[in-house]
Amino acid sequence: MTVSAPVAARRPRVLVLRALGLGDLLAAVPALRGLRRAFPDHETVLAAPAPLRDAASATGAVDTLLPASAPRRGVPELTGWHGAPPDVAVDLHGNGPESHAALAALGPRRILSYACPSPGPTAPPVWRREDHERERWCRLLRAYGIEADPGDVLLSPPPGPSPAPGAVVVHPGAEAAARRWPADRYATVIRAVLAAGRRVVVTGGPGEEELTAAVAGASGVASGDVLSGGLPFAELSALVAEAACLVSGDTGPAHLAVAHGTPSVTLFGPVAPRLWGPPPGDPLHTALWHPGPPGDPHGTVADPLLLRIGTGEVVASVLSHIDRGRTAGSRSGFRAAEANGCA
Description:
- The N and C termini lie far apart (46 Å).
- The protein is 30% helix and 15% strand.
- The model is unreliable at 3-9 and 327-343 (pLDDT under 50).
- It has helices at 22-27, 29-38, 53-58, 98-104, 133-143, 183-195, 209-219, 233-241, 252-260, 273-276, 304-307, 311-324; strands spanning 13-17, 43-48, 64-67, 88-91, 110-112, 168-171, 200-203, 226-227, 245-249, 264-267, 282-288, 336-339.
- With 343 residues, it is α/β, with parallel strands linked by helices.
């Protein structure tokens, strides 16, 4: 898959706008695969941040990455597009009007979006705040006659080895402070997992070196088991795929655990797991959440609902997954469990 914009395309192109993060990309995999099946003779171009190139390739539904990003999850200008206009443009970025306008500026023959539809017999679907993110984009496509299965999220096993097979992976960071559980609570959980005789690896994205060092230092994790600064996607994917369990907030690695059928414990706060969480009814995945009013997932302080989650319920959930082990044949389907324990 190429990173630069395609030139002199030999076949019609589908341009998909989803210029967000890793978790957002993985939540859109069912829609991307639906588009691939609907337009098998088209080149599928994904407008997304350049660091997501390898992740986009791993979906098996993207041919070309058009580098595109904007601060604060905004809508980027698609100035890197060259050649003929897209045959079909698909807005998986938001509900408009800005994202729709960015696609319309390229002059596509047809736009599939929740807002400002191109003239035609098909009325645009209605944006529903209560939709799960995976279902949201599948419903968009179904409104235009394209089938997409929100459960179609599994990725193929990574080609390379894990740097720590069988470890419990703890990812304490998140893009926004609202979704970051306190570092000292992560350290408490890690000490309990280490006391149970399991290896723990602490991971972090770019700029989270101080956070991962603080968590590791307070919990006794060996320096060689701190993988911070943002692992290349292939290495992160292999690490999560071969983990005994992943512990994190509502962020990219949690979606990667679902994509690989890896047991996970995900801590939710400002956004309920019914909107962004793992598939319901799957015992591989525990979504910890204490119901309450929705918050700002991009807020600058830890969300009050997230802070209601106690260390005891997290430890119990992690140890339960470790004791149970990975269910044979888990990659053939989804079986999720949501836990709303007490602090």
